[in-house]
Structures are given as C-alpha cells and as structure tokens.
Predict the structure.
Amino acid sequence: MTGRLEGKIVAITGAASGFGEAAAIRFVAEGAKVVLGDIQEDAGKKVAEGLGDAARFVSCNVTREEEVANLVDTAVTEFGQLDVMYNNAGIVGAAGPIATTVTDEWKFTIDILLNGVFYGCKHAARVMIPRGRGSIVSMSSTAGIMGGLGPHAYATAKHGVIGLTKNIACELAQHGIRANAISPAGMATPMVAALRGDPTAIEETKKGLAASSPLKGRAGVADDVVNAALWLASDESGYTSGHTLTTDAGLTIGSANATPFEEYQPIIREAGKRGMDD
C-alpha cells in the first residue's frame, strides 16, 4: 500500500461487516488508525483484533447519540485526534407499499440511516472544529438520487443524507472541514445478498448483479465503495466538499437503459421533417 492515510485517525460506524469492515482493513493498510463501532460486538471485536494495535472496537448503536459521541471521544482519547468520520452503518429497513408501511419500522429505519449520520456529523464536527481540519464521509445510495431504487424509508433517509452533507459542507468549510457522500448501487455485500435470501452468498450475488449491471459482466463490490471512501478520506480530495460520489456504473445517469438511435438516422427537424435539405 502507499500510505495514503498515514497518521490519520478514523472512526467508522457499522464496521463489523460489509463496507465498514472492508474500509477498516484498507484504511489501516494505508497507514491509518481506526476506531470501529458496531452493534455486532463479537464480529466487530474480531475485525479489530485482526488489525492489531492500529484498531479499537467500541460497541455503538447509532440510534443512541451518546454511543456515537463515545465512538468519537474514544478516537480522541486512544489516538489523540479524529481526522475522518465515516458514517457507514445501515440496514435495508422498512419495506413494502406506502399504504401498509409500519410506522414503528419507518421510524426505526430513519433513526439508523439518517439520525445516526446526523449524530456522527455532529460529534465529528465537535472535535474537528478546534483543530481546523477533518473529513466527514457519509453513505447515501443511488436510492438517495433517484426514485424507485429502494424502499420508501430507505430512499427518504438516503436523500436526507445528501441534503445534510451539502448543508454541513457549507457550514464547516470555514473551519477547514470537508463533508462528502457516497452513493453506491446494489453491490455484492452481505446486506444485498440477504435480500436474495442468504447474507453469506456473496459470489452468487455477484454473479446476479453482473448480469444486470450497466457495465457488461461487471458487478459492484465492496472495494469499489472502499476506494471511493479512501479518496474522500485522504488529502487527495482536499478541494472536494459537498459532493456525492456515485459508485453505480452510471446507473443514475441512465446507462442501464438502451441507448436510443444506436444507428445513424438523418437529422429529425420541425414537424418530423428529416434531413438538412430545405
């Protein structure tokens, strides 16, 4: 690795599996020290143990502000500072038609996917502002950019993450702090595999996604998101803030659709007239 995060301290929510686990491993390999937060304590401790002295694990339920605050404070007490906050924790959440969506499931989904990001941004800003620098990276989704790509509560929360990211980027720029979001499409991760029936069936999920990908034969994988997070966390993106970086093979610009007019046709003009001749 190239030391792209050398000397940086990173806090990651949802770090026991999926994007969070992959990011923790990669960030340490790039020179960072990490504090990992998750409600999956056994899995989270195992990830941290595998990373040795460069990692700490903290039990963290992102619906509880005090636990997110503790995650941030642990980074400062254990490693002296916080350079990067990666708001990654997530679930699929409430699903189904709007007319039958269960209110408590809706609220719980919003609490994890949006309020949890708010807590992460709030407490990261609290310790970053006095230092005059830092990077906040939050997970949105293609469902936060377009309609029809996720359940209602999920799409609502992910749209909110993008709005929050833009707003805090405006406020925190004066303090030298950047805020950006990542919007992946469905990727070959345990969460997406679970939607297909088995969270461990990553290879089967990868094959299924490859068949429907805008990039022929190429599924999105965790490393695609980790690469984006690494860039936004590093000084390489030092003049980028308020941005939503997609990892979706162009899905949100329409590349999943057939390209119209794939063969040449004479120009189509007023009233359906064709050709350049008057």
Notes: The two ends are 63 Å apart (CA to CA). The first strand starts at residue 9 and ends at 13.
